[in-house]
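Project outcomes to date are best conveyed with an example. Our students and postdoctoral researchers have been running inverse folding experiments weekly, and each run begins with a structure described purely in tokens. The record below, which covers 211 residues, was selected by the lab manager from last quarter's runs and is presented without edits.
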């Protein structure tokens, strides 16, 4: 089973092409995200499979799902064979068990205003991504709500991040990782090479400074 490890984590989400996946890898990110659910950055499972197969072993590939049935999630995992899965919906223990049986780590994405934000048992997953009220829209938000509940798993900050403010997020004591899509794009689904490189460099620098 692929596991999340290390003292920091940088993920570039919403990758839609092989060229952008290679760009993300060469910039030094830990992972890229492939969205196979309704989104401005959606890719087919066939596209995701091709990207994943070509880069397997050189960078982590995370399949991002939303508004899919458990059976559809598992079918997509079987086709794409990602290293990990990022779930934006509540998941029963049976689905989590099946994902781990397939060798995937699990990231649960939670918005600050989600009904289960304070009730979700984070021990069921490998990491939690804390996003704003509009995931995927690049809207920044305050982090005050993060301290409102205890956490047992590594936390990934997301929502409105760019190379200019990622350091502020990383200097929050609870942040283990960062995730970005809109902040490194020319337009939805198309990455800006310089923005990707600048974001990863700024994040790495901030993690080094913090340590």
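After processing, the design step wrote out the following sequence:
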């Amino acid at each position: 089973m692929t596991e999340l490890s290390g003292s920091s984590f940088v993920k570039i989400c919403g990758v839609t092409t092989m060229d952008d996946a290679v760009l993300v890898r060469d910039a030094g990110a830990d992972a890229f995200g492939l969205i196979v659910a309704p989104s401005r950055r959606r890719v087919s499972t066939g596209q995701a499979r091709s990207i994943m197969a070509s880069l397997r072993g050189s960078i982590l590939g995370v399949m991002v799902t939303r508004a899919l049935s458990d059976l559809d999630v598992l079918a997509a995992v079987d086709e794409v064979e990602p290293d990990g899965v990022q779930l934006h919906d509540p998941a029963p223990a049976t689905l989590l068990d099946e994902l781990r049986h397939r060798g995937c780590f699990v990231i649960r994405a939670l918005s600050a205003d989600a009904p289960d934000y304070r009730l979700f048992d984070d021990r069921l997953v490998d990491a939690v991504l804390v996003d704003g009220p509009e995931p995927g829209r690049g809207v920044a938000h305050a982090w005050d709500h993060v301290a409102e509940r205890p956490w047992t798993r590594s936390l990934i900050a997301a929502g409105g991040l760019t190379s200019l403010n990622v350091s502020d997020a990383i200097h929050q004591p609870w942040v283990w990782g960062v995730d970005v899509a809109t902040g490194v794009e020319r337009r939805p689904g198309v990455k800006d090479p310089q923005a990707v490189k600048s974001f990863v460099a700024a994040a790495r620098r901030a993690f080094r400074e913090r340590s």
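Strands lie at 9-12, 31-35, 60-65, 84-87, 105-111, 127-131, 154-158, 175-180, 185-187, 190-191. DSSP finds six helices and ten strands in the chain. The training component of this project remains on track.
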